[in-house]
TrEMBL record:
<dbReference type="InterPro" id="IPR006058">
    <property type="entry name" value="2Fe2S_fd_BS"/>
</dbReference>
<dbReference type="InterPro" id="IPR036884">
    <property type="entry name" value="2Fe-2S-bd_dom_sf"/>
</dbReference>
<dbReference type="InterPro" id="IPR052914">
    <property type="entry name" value="Aldehyde_Oxdr_Iron-Sulfur"/>
</dbReference>
<keyword id="KW-0560">Oxidoreductase</keyword>
<protein>
    <submittedName>
        <fullName>Aldehyde dehydrogenase iron-sulfur subunit</fullName>
    </submittedName>
</protein>
<feature type="domain" description="2Fe-2S ferredoxin-type">
    <location>
        <begin position="18"/>
        <end position="94"/>
    </location>
</feature>
<dbReference type="InterPro" id="IPR001041">
    <property type="entry name" value="2Fe-2S_ferredoxin-type"/>
</dbReference>
<dbReference type="Pfam" id="PF00111">
    <property type="entry name" value="Fer2"/>
</dbReference>
<dbReference type="InterPro" id="IPR036010">
    <property type="entry name" value="2Fe-2S_ferredoxin-like_sf"/>
</dbReference>
<keyword id="KW-0408">Iron</keyword>
<dbReference type="InterPro" id="IPR012675">
    <property type="entry name" value="Beta-grasp_dom_sf"/>
</dbReference>
<dbReference type="Pfam" id="PF01799">
    <property type="entry name" value="Fer2_2"/>
</dbReference>
<dbReference type="InterPro" id="IPR002888">
    <property type="entry name" value="2Fe-2S-bd"/>
</dbReference>
<keyword id="KW-0479">Metal-binding</keyword>
Length: 185
């Protein structure tokens, strides 16, 4: 009947699915997803890209951080349908041609992980943060915050502020900051 909700035999709403073309780490993935599905679930459950982690599933820990068009997003809060035909980079895509990304090298050199669960989100967030700083985006701790203000340097305070959306339950923050600071120089 016209105007009736699409329901299943048990009375629940039937999923609405769409076909998408996802561009992830330079590869194209045709995928059919439920319109309510998160990017994190699509990456992990459908595409077997398990680097991004499901930590809190509420956008509070940052373990699921990926880059969409170079900007940091919490994939547990991002619906897959919103990233159709956009450039997605996961931790698996940071390395190029078999060579680790400078952040990955620095994290190893500075022992910037303990259990490693948050590391993929930390790495993607750091890559996005470095790009934001290079583009002149100020943070709340940037001196002289205002129109046209550019961060002079990514010191410890700037890095800590800019990475504040990523939690490390092991407390490896000093090493994470040192690794990012090395790459920022």
């Amino acid at each position: 009947m016209k105007g009736e909700p699409n329901t299943q035999d048990d009375g629940s709403s039937a999923p609405i699915t769409v076909d998408l073309q996802l561009s992830i780490n330079g590869e194209r993935y045709p995928v059919m997803v439920d319109t309510r599905e998160t990017l994190l679930d699509t990456l992990r459950e459908r595409l077997d890209l398990t680097g991004s982690k499901k930590g809190c599933d509420h956008g509070q820990c940052g373990a699921c951080t990926v880059l969409v068009d170079g900007r940091r997003v919490k994939s547990c809060l991002t619906l897959t349908v919103t990233v159709d035909d956009r450039d997605i980079t996961t931790v698996e895509g940071l390395a190029r041609d078999g060579a680790l990304h400078p952040l990955q090298k620095a994290f190893i050199e500075h022992d910037a992980f303990q259990c490693g669960y948050c590391t993929p989100g930390q790495l993607c967030s750091a890559a996005g943060m470095l790009a934001e700083a290079a583009d002149g985006w100020p943070s709340v701790v940037t001196p002289g915050l205002g129109a046209g203000t550019r961060p002079a340097a990514l010191d410890e305070e700037e890095i800590r502020e800019r990475m504040s959306g990523n939690l490390c339950r092991c407390g490896a923050y000093p090493n994470i900051v040192a690794a990012i600071e090395q790459v920022a120089r």
